[in-house]
Amino acid sequence: MAIDRRDFLKFSAGATLLAHPVLSFAKARTRGRVVVIGGGYAGATAAKYLRMWSEGTIEVVVIEPNQHFISCPLSNLVLGGSKHIGELMFAYDQLKSQHGIQWVRDEVTAIDSQTRTVKMTRGQLSYDRLIVAPGVDFIYDQLPTLQGIDAQIAVPHAWKAGPQTVNLQKQLMAMADNGVFVISVPKAPYRCPPGPYERISQVAFYLKQHKPKAKIIALDANPEITSKKGLFTKAWADLYPGMIDYRPNSSLVDVDIATRTVKTEFETVKADVLNVIPPQRAGKPAQMAGVVNIDKRWCEVDFLTYESKVAPNIHIVGDAVSAALPKSAHMATSQARICASAIVCAMNGQPIDPSPVFANTCYSYVTDKMAMHVAHVYRYDAAKRVMVAAEGGGVSDKPSEQEGDYAQYWAKNIWSDVLT
Amino acid sequence: MQKHDMTWMLLISLMAFGSANAEDDAIHIRTLAASCAACHGTNGNSVGGTPVLAGLDQGHFTSQMLAFRSGERASTVMHRHAKGLTPAEIEQLAHYFAAQPRTAAITPTPVE
In whole angstroms, what is the distance from residue A162 CA to residue A261 CA? Predict the structure, then answer.
């Protein structure tokens, strides 16, 4: 093969940090610079493990617009009333200082893959490799009335945890005792497959205690519950009999914000509190990088490196990846580590792992205390070139308080792993 | 062929032809072991609720994983993870976690 081995040892050449008002990093002698866009589960994990596994020889800069990390996992418990949003919010300080990660609080405005430059509102950065971990962006093409901040305050999505979650919680608290909560679930794939059904359970848990005459109507664009179907169906019948009206094959065609009324192909439904989870695609930075090549929604990657199939030196991890894999937080961290490991190998001139394997688990709460899991080990299939679920995976037999405890321990451990 | 493809292909072929096996396994195991961190903490240093894997006796580790696989040891979730791994991976994970130093638990402070 014509490539010189030194070629991939040359990554550090030409890495200059261009002017950024908040940046004054001395150019360290490193094997190269990786810029990570996004400080969520995927991006923060990639940054930490790049520093750890390169033993500090790769310079890592994270670009993240938000001041705090806010966990989507467990945020449905805020609606149920057993968690406060502040318990899910963390500073990035420990992550930055423990691992020597450089941090820019800014928004990406453009990505030039030719010159390997990321532009932000207040400056620009050059990279040897770019990791895009942008999470999801909402698609409003089919529901134009929902576009705009005022509309989303009246009809929250609450699918990115934070003020939206608190907004929805407040609306539920203010709802009439015999009110109707309507939730719209988009067609898969979307972030967190069991999430909408966990939300329905948590809202039912809240209503059962505080407004037992209230009703829930779930309009699901999918033909059936997309994850843990048997478990949710049974939990709803056992715990919340008569409260949840689940309607499959119900895609929204129109939303009237003022009256909180929605139309599907079959019917018109009026809500007192309306929660529309919009269809999703790879977040904006992925669109700017030109790596959203599947259905104009998701990013096709090489599962050995998470490098884009269409743009060299740009890697994508987390929910934005096109894969038959659940878009979960644990999955995002696993992908991020495979990507980080491959980049460390490349910059060290070491062989990469030709057959990655990782675990994934996702817990869902059906009350304040009872949870259930879906868990699989995923193994790389060299013939199909994708990650495939191994034998032995599956879901809990039933929700339990013991798994409710383990779900809290999962959160504690994953937060510690991602943020310290 | 694009240049970046060739770079990765070279890395993979280095893998296939004559590179040190222990080193390859180490790369495979570090990412697999790190995927246990969501429940068992970074490098097996659990910050609470789940067993600490760092510094665990290799024999104990392997016997527990095999017991989760066979169902001999009841578990809430570990049987799912143990069954998806090969016996060689379980051995290598046992070796990996035994070698990890135990560190004090660090939990991020909520902003609240």
Answer: 25
Could you tell me which chain B residue has the CA closest to the CA of A48?
B42
Residue of B1, B2, B4 to mutate for A, most A C-beta atoms under 10 A = B4
pLDDT of residue B98: 97
> What integer pLDDT is reported at residue B24 of this predicted model?
74
Tokens, residue A345: 């190998």
Q: Measured between alpha carbons, how far is residue A165 from residues A73, A162, A276, A360, A366 in Å? A: 12, 5, 12, 25, 18
pTM more than 0.90: yes
- The DSSP result for A133-177, as a single string, is ---EEE--TT-GGG-SHHHHHHS----SSSHHHHHHHHHHHHS-T
Q: Tell me which CATH homologous superfamily contains domain B3-98.
A: Cytochrome c-like domain (1.10.760.10)
Please give the Cα distance from A147 to A168 (Å, whole number): 17
B27–A350 CB contact, under 8 Å: yes
Taking CA–CA distances from A375, the nearest residue in chain B reads: B80
B77 at the A interface (CB within 8 A)?
yes
Q: In this complex, do A376 and B80 lie within 8 Å of one another by their Cβ atoms?
A: yes
**Secondary structure of residue B18 in the 3-state scheme:** coil
Q: How far is CA A403 from CA A234, A302, A366, A396, A399, in A?
A: 17, 34, 11, 9, 7
Q: Which residue of A has its CA nearest to B13?
A: A351
- A177 — phi, psi (to 5°)? -60, -30
Residue B86's region, left for phi above 0, alpha for psi from -120 to 50, else beta, is beta
Please state the domain extents for chain B.
3-98
CB distance from B24 to chain A under 8 Å?
A: yes
Quick: pLDDT tens for A176-201.
999 999 999 999 999 999 999 999 99
ipTM, interface predicted TM-score of the complex? 0.89
Backbone angles phi, psi at A2, to 5 degrees: -75, -10
Q: Does B110 touch chain A (CB under 8 A)?
A: yes
Whether B21 and chain A come into contact, CB under 8 Å, resolves to no
Q: Is A365 left (phi over 0), alpha (psi -120 to 50) or beta?
A: beta
Residue with tokens 């070796």: B95
